[in-house]
Specification:
Radius of gyration: 21 Å
Helix content: 25-40%
Largest sheet: 8 strands, parallel
Shape: globular
Number of helices: 15
Low-confidence stretches: none
Distance between the termini: 8 Å
């Protein structure tokens, strides 16, 4: 269902239990939530509903739990093609070099993305988005980074904006031009960073297509010095930054991100204590991505104990992408964060609501049910919020309200 088809959510949502901010200790049993003009105007125990609101139409939630809409704060949702054959080759014993020689790897996604028109990219991404929306996602970040040229990056970001408009979902776009080195710049990484900083970013920022800027700081990506250049360029346009950091090695990317006041540092399997301390001081969110950890069969766990010790907020996301995390289930990521990373249920509930919203710089808009905010929430036919992290392969979402409209 798209925005134009969706009915209004205005009225009293009752016969429900409320989880206002992902914190189970603050749950409200036998609650009610009131929506007017697409915004939450009251929530609390049904018995305390103000008389002045009692006349409004009612929506029977049939005993469901109502939570904030889930936030998927790190995705690469818009791209051409897929890489299932490459996955099969790897399982059959092909090396990274073998796959690259056969035209695979990120180059194949870049080629497919460049060749596809906007309508094709929209149609492919819409199917992925619909799966996420069906699981209660109401806000999502979408990165570019598979075009690696001005025209192709623009195309990705335009499609991301179009998805938000068509589906009534809050889309936050991130320019990830410094994702990989395009084939035409082989051996000329600094020249490509010049292009990213001096041509691509200025044009895309001018066109209002960019909400944040990201980079891949890694041995197979870009150096800390090159990443710094990208972040300095972002600052010139008043854009916040995020960083793919410490996924495969420790280059000090998290500390670099913290020095630039980054909203988040993501992946973090090789993060050390100095990086954790820097993130804590800067207020940078740690975004953990169990799908990529699982798909790559990684064995180096992110330092969860250190993140807890320093009080760094931890978000969870799908990292949906064709090469290392082809998942369209944020609920599955919650389960994986518990089973693989040993996170607790309250931690993962916060990780897909309050902390995920903070990773987008959108804590005032998403991640909690609060008076004055847009009506973005999900209804779940469950006996306990713990079930959201418990089940895998099952979707207990029975209703979704996005931007004041009912979509299920």
């Amino acid at each position: 269902m798209t925005r134009t088809d969706a009915p209004s959510a205005d009225g009293i949502w009752h016969h429900c239990h409320l989880l206002p901010d992902g914190n189970i200790d603050r749950a409200i049993r036998d609650g009610a939530l009131v929506v007017e003009a697409g915004r939450i105007v009251w929530l609390g125990p049904l018995a305390a509903l103000p008389d002045g609101l009692a006349h409004l139409p009612r929506h029977d939630a049939n005993g469901a739990w109502i939570t904030p809409g889930l936030v998927d704060c790190h995705t690469h949702l818009v791209y051409g093609g897929q890489r299932a054959d490459e996955f099969a080759m790897r399982l059959a014993g092909a090396s990274y070099e073998d796959i690259a020689r056969a035209g695979g790897g990120i180059v194949s996604t870049v080629r497919a993305t460049r060749e596809a028109d906007e309508a094709t990219l929209f149609a492919q991404a819409a199917l992925r988005l619909e799966a996420l929306l069906a699981e209660g996602v109401t806000a999502i970040e979408i990165k570019s980074g598979y075009g690696l040229s001005l025209d192709a990056e623009r195309k990705q970001l335009r499609v991301a904006r179009q998805l938000g408009e068509a589906y009534g979902v809050s889309v936050y776009t991130t320019f990830l031009g410094a994702h990989a080195l395009p084939p035409e710049y082989a051996g000329r990484a600094d020249d490509y960073i010049d292009l990213v900083c001096n041509a691509m970013l200025p044009a895309l920022a001018e066109e209002k297509l960019v909400d944040a800027v990201d980079a891949f700081c890694e041995g197979i990506g870009f150096s800390p010095a090159q990443t710094t250049r990208v972040f300095d360029a972002a600052a010139r346009y008043g854009l916040p930054v995020r960083l793919h950091a410490e996924q495969l090695s420790n280059l000090g990317g998290a500390a670099l991100a913290a020095r630039h006041g980054a909203l988040s540092a993501d992946h973090l399997e090789h993060l050390d204590e100095a990086g954790v301390a820097a993130m804590a001081e800067a207020g940078t969110v740690a975004v953990l991505l169990p799908g990529a950890y699982y798909f790559l069969r990684d064995t180096h766990l992110p330092p969860l104990a250190l993140l807890r010790q320093y009080g760094v907020p931890v978000a969870i996301s799908t990292d949906h992408n064709p090469g290392t995390s082809p998942t369209t289930s944020l609920l599955l990521m919650m389960n994986m964060a518990c089973t693989l990373f040993r996170m607790t249920v309250p931690e993962v509930l916060a990780g897909v609501t309050t902390h995920a919203a903070r990773a987008l710089g959108a804590s005032d808009r998403h991640g909690a049910l609060a008076v004055g905010r847009s009506a973005d929430f999900a209804l779940w036919q469950i006996a306990s919020p713990a079930e959201l992290a418990y089940w895998f392969g099952r979707n207990p979402c029975v209703g979704v309200v996005r931007q004041g409209k009912v979509y299920r």
